[in-house]
Design a protein that fits this description.
The chain is of the alpha+beta class. The chain has two domains: 3-118, Aminotransferase class 4, branched-chain amino acid transferase, N-terminal domain (D-amino Acid Aminotransferase, Chain A, domain 1), CATH 3.30.470; 123-282, D-amino Acid Aminotransferase, Chain A, domain 2 (Alpha-Beta Barrel), CATH 3.20.10.10. The protein is built from eight helices and 15 strands. Strands 7, 8, 9, 10, 11, 12, 13, 14 and 15 form a nine-stranded mixed β-sheet that branches. The protein has a six-stranded antiparallel β-sheet with strand order 2-1-6-5-3-4. Strand 13 (236-241) and strand 14 form a beta hairpin. The longest helix has 19 residues, at 264-282. 38% of the residues are buried. Bound molecules: N-(5'-phosphopyridoxyl)-D-alanine. The site of N-(5'-phosphopyridoxyl)-D-alanine has 15 residues, from helix 6 and strand 13.
Length: 283
């Protein structure tokens, strides 16, 4: 039986339920994180918790406990579910209160829910590459907040799926923003390019790691706006996310990227990312 974290308690899945008056349920009024677990250890945990707390601050949501307490409970969750390779999902909503748009009183505590589940690394897709469609970005102007409101992302991903594609790469006008659930990189004339962090994208934890690895590997990397046409004509395209890690994109719409196989820069960055995972496990 799966064990879930409900506020302070680890409870069995069957005993865990959400209140109908939870603001996450009614308004999507809350935030979340998805954290990778390798070898039973959360990966880039501090970075994820920094972003979680930042998202909370940006929507004036008060953490109900100290970070260390929450971390202790999340580790308890990994142990209780015996997760080796998997993910932790953690969300926090603005609590339970009779439905009203206004914030509830300060005395209403945030509701924290988390689960840890096994999930293999997507090896086959990483070796072969995946396809994507380009789709108009319909989201709000605070995509830097990892909000529970994911309706446009869900719709974009479903459109991709219907087209037989893995991811939807979103754009505002001519400018690529990010995937429905990932950040986007291209390689053009040997230079790695990615959309700069702003209110229009989620500043991905994997994206930041990749930028660091590019520097360490000596690959020229530039954060600047990427046009849709540039993406379609790129030598290589890849997406990054906690779940996908470094995922080559070999086709966008009807356009084959490069020779239709994951390119050399992407391959090297995948290897560098593997080493970062192994390195974290050695610490
Ligand atoms: N998605 N952009 C969006 C819109 C995302 O939803 C995600 C992650 C990313 C990549 O961020 P990171 O590298 O920190 O995972 C970028 C998570 C995994 C999800 O919702 O499942």
């Amino acid at each position: 039986m799966e064990t879930i974290l409900r506020n302070r308690d680890l409870v069995s899945r069957d005993d865990a339920s959400a209140d109908l008056e939870d603001r996450g349920y009614q308004f999507g009024d809350g935030i979340y994180e998805v954290i990778r677990v390798y070898d039973g250890e959360p990966f880039l945990l501090d970075e994820h918790m920094d972003r979680f707390e930042r998202s909370a601050r940006e929507i004036s949501l008060k953490m109900p406990c100290e970070r260390a307490e929450l971390l202790g409970r999340m580790r308890g969750l990994i142990a209780a579910n015996e997760i080796a390779t998997g993910t932790i999902y953690v969300q926090m909503t603005r609590g339970v209160h009779p439905r009203s748009q206004m914030f509830p009183p300060d005395s209403v505590p945030a509701e924290v829910t988390a689960f840890a589940r096994p999930l293999d690394r997507p090896g086959a897709e990483q070796r072969n590459g995946v396809s994507a469609i380009l789709t108009a970005d319909m989201r709000w102007l605070r995509c830097d907040i990892k909000s529970l409101n994911l309706l446009p992302n869900v719709l974009a991903r479903q459109t991709a799926r219907k087209a037989g594609c893995y991811e939807a790469i979103q754009h505002r006008g001519e400018a690529v923003t990010e995937g429905a659930f990932s950040n986007v990189f291209i390689v053009a004339e040997g230079v790695v390019l990615t959309t700069p962090a702003s209110n229009l994208i989620l500043s991905g934890i994997t994206r930041a790691k990749l930028l660091e690895l590019c520097e360490a590997c000596g690959w020229p990397v530039v954060e600047r706006t990427v046009a849709c046409q540039e993406l379609l004509g790129a030598e290589e395209v890849f997406i990054t996310s906690t779940v996908n890690e470094v995922m080559p994109v070999v086709r966008v719409n009807d356009q084959t990227i490069g020779n239709g196989e994951p390119g050399p820069v992407t391959r090297n960055l995948q290897k560098a990312f593997d080493r970062a995972i192994d390195g974290a496990a050695d610490v």
